[in-house]
Specification:
38% helix; globular; binds L-MYO-inositol-1-phosphate
Length: 263
Amino acid sequence: MTDTVIQQKYLAACAIAREAGRLIRQRFETRDEALTLRFKGPQDYLTETDAEVERLIAQRLSESFPEDAFFGEEGGGTMASEVWIVDPIDGTADFARGVPYFCVSIAFVKDGRSEIGVLYDPMQDELFAARRGHGATVNGKPLRVSTVTDIRQAVVELGWSNRVRFEDYAKVLDRLHAAGAGVRRRGSGALGIAYVAMGRQDAYCELHINAWDAAAAVLIVDEAGGWTNDFLTEACLREGNRVMACTPALRPVIEQAMQLGSE
Ligand code: LIP
């Protein structure tokens, strides 16, 4: 694939993310405060906007790149050698409850490796974007992870979902607190990882997250000078994986905290 083609895909992904974000914000601001909440499962919200936004993104990508495969959180798809992996709204729970903390995530993956990662937070109007080997930006400005080296000065976000045993989550949480980290938990893994790339926090980790949640954001941290685990494995594309993203100096303590089966 030529550099020109990758650049065309990158620019299209940025434009489509912004268009999708405008639709998400419009739906968020006109939502019925008394809306009926719907769930795919315990703590797993379902909103009509997720599906509507995913259809828009799929349509735009198909118009521009009909030869590429598509896989979305809501409608699924095919994980071919050249595929767009999309989470239409990462942070669905907060979107559903009227909390303005969510983003759209678009990744282009070639032969199992993210080549393009784009996130857009329409409420903050922040477009995080990266091409492999070309750095990462937010609204066009270069991104770099923080210079924090001491866990006792670090802000670490530990994500959780009921896909994970609470006792495992609690074990990681206990280790992070014991090490002296300032621990947070919000509701969007993609934004939490992007905030590491931006230096707003120093690490994000979660024992299980899906490929569509984190594929784009992990590349953004890589290109912002951070360390990430080997997240997007072949198994991850099928069933998700654990994710770690942090400043390089914090890697040992984050890896140790996330070890399961070791006391
Ligand atoms: C969310 C992830 C988050 C995880 C939540 C949920 P969604 O994605 O970003 O890290 O803890 O359970 O999976 O469902 O809002 O797209």
